[in-house]
């Protein structure tokens, strides 16, 4: 039982990332009808916003510290972060420590701008084109963004630690009645799951309970009729593209302490997340979220040594096997609607 609970927790961790990326993919496809293969690159850019924030807050200058001397008694030069000189050592150290959560404040406007530029500068020219053309052009854009990140940040993963308050593990088993130290789980992974649940809930609440969201949902169902009512639905869909980009970006920011950012992480997550979207049903937001968590949990169980000893390599293909089975039995996915990608 303890192994099962641990694998469920691992699955929720992976599923949170899949669900957030798939949610943005589905928002873009549901509103604009575009299959955006550059969406994984937005997740990667978000992770590197966290890296950039950490580097900026860590910028320092040399200062002579009279309290420290070398073996000859000469005072030593020490590196002092600018934020500590501006805000004091305590506040400055706290800002550096919490650089990842603080990066969200910068990631949101950055990703909104990137989303607007992508949609207005490139994506809008492919609304009427076949999905194959959309996939090719957005996949090419993803490669360009990937190579730009590689040029400026290098090819090696960059460690981006979580705040000190969340370093370490939580004794989850003791909380639910197991023996101590049986089910230990990292604090930050639990934080990521809660963060993902909050973001997903906020997106659904925005679409369900706001006037803007209701108009967007109406436009997703019947774009022409909404346009005839005098509503500029194209502008609202552009804003939704920016929101989808922001969701992917902040998902990448918070995932940086879990997986050290590298230039190809977006492509790694994109393929899996696109499978999640197809399994959940193209254009179905609840389907994308449900499939993300479902496939994350299945992948986690498939990674157990007991399972891999019986079926070697199953952890690498389980998601695709499940996708094949579901699409053979339910061609529209778990919650897909009629007419989507059937033309």
From TrEMBL:
Keywords: Amino-acid transport, Cell membrane, Membrane, Transmembrane, Transmembrane helix, Transport. InterPro entries: ABC_transp_permease, BCAA_transport_permease. It comes from the Bacteria. Its main location: membrane. It is found in: Cell membrane. It is a multi-pass membrane protein. The chain crosses the membrane at residues 16-35, 42-61, 102-123, 190-216, 237-258, 270-298, 310-328. Pfam families: BPD_transp_2. PANTHER family: ABC TRANSPORTER ATP-BINDING PROTEIN, BRANCHED-CHAIN AMINO ACID TRANSPORT SYSTEM PERMEASE PROTEIN LIVH. Belongs to the binding-protein-dependent transport system permease family. LivHM subfamily. This is Branched-chain amino acid ABC transporter permease.
